[in-house]
Request: fold
Amino acid sequence: MNELWDWDAAYAVLPELLLAFLKVTLLVTVVSTAIAAVLGLVIAILRMSVPKPVAVVINFIGDFIRMTPIVVQLLFAYWTFLSVDAIVIGIAVFGIHYSTYMAEVYRAGIESVPKGQWEATKALSMSKSRTWIAVIIPQALRATVPALGNYAISMFKDTPFLLTIGVVEMVRAGLTFGGNHFRYMEAITLAGVIFLLASYPTSLLISRLEKRLAYNY
Amino acid sequence: MPTTTEPETVPAPATAATVPAIKFENVEKRFGDNVVLKDLNFEVAKGDRVTLIGPSGSGKTTILRLVMTLEDLSGGFIYIDGEPLTHEERGGKRVELGEKAQKQIRKRIGMVFQQFNLFPNMSVLENIIEAPVHVLGQSKEEATARAMELLESVGLPDKADAHPLELSGGQQQRVAIARALAMDPEILLLDEVTSALDPEIVGEVLGILRHIAATTDITMLIVTHEMQFARDVSNRVMMFDGGKVVEEATPEVMFTNPQHERTQSFLHAVLGNAEDQIGTR
Reply:
């Protein structure tokens, strides 16, 4: 019982970790990434389309969110909206927090589209919405896919912060198991391995996608 | 207007002929403190092919960009078919038109750029039918049929599904010409359309533009360094220097017997080069 590693404990904790991984960690990552990706794009476009004073306000809110720790934001939102389910709080906070980063990535992507592209849309009398949807966003996205993917992975690795507001994600599940059986090493190690096994192929996928987009361009 | 060719080149009724396709009235353009155009007045009749020549920095390209509304007008008025393009005079005041009104006028104008500016995320066909379908409201079939006709006329019928960056510069520019023509513009602006091309493929692009000039009645405003092309296509040449029209004449007069000293020295410098290039082509 005192050795560093106990295989029986490892086998016992693994199903619990995988269950928490699928039910919480993956769910939060996927839904929050989707929110961040869409909201980030909306923020980026809004900032370029609204009058300057409004853009300044949007910028300030974005800076504020990026300059404060996500744990503080989770706790703040949790204690502000006590009646809301913690996992919903978690998804919203992760989505909004990362949307401010993604907005920056989109901004860089949008700015990388040559001026001549905008001029061509004007010369063809294209509407604002068609200009964005058909010309600017598709070209901006090519430049942003890798950065967006990396933020998704980074968010994935931030999900253990959810334990601060009582969400039983994978690490919390491992700690609970550890507390019950006095075996922490197996749970924490396996949680790390699961994170690695999920992140690494994803990052490979992103770099392949990046190459494919570059080739088609 | 001093052009003598106007009555022959305008087949429209006499009343229409009196309304110029493009009219600049006291146009001023500044970039910060730098005054590029000042008090500029000129007219382009319907069906005219006007070439703007002059040294770089003389404001030729700015004129095209003002007509395409790619630059903000600092002062004065531009009229297209007698209608204000961006600003109008209302109660003695210069008022900017709403975006909707501007767009209605802008639809009649097409432009071909030096850098082609094709959309790299779309196929050649998609580039050409995008605006006809989404701006003019044509059906996809209708727009595609017209696009294929245009691709045929620019000699690229087999490139419909290609992507722009798979094409050579000359081919890209031919697609850009087809894309502009797909909107059936009344006015076509050609902004140094061969300047980014290798010398040996300049000819293929100019050949297509010559054909368009010969077979349509589109009003053309051209900025080019290809003096032979200007001579072949245009019926009027305007020499610019320092944001002003120094001299204007028919190409025959302008290129053989320019009156103004500034025009003489400019043409002397440019034509020497142009003739060298024609020799090697």
Remarks:
- The mean pLDDT of chain A is 92.
- Chain A has one domain: 7-216.
- Chain A touches chain B at residues 114, 116-117, 119-120, 122-127, 130, 134-135, 138-139, 142, 216-217 (CB under 8 Å).
- Residues 7-49 of chain A form the longest helix (43 residues).
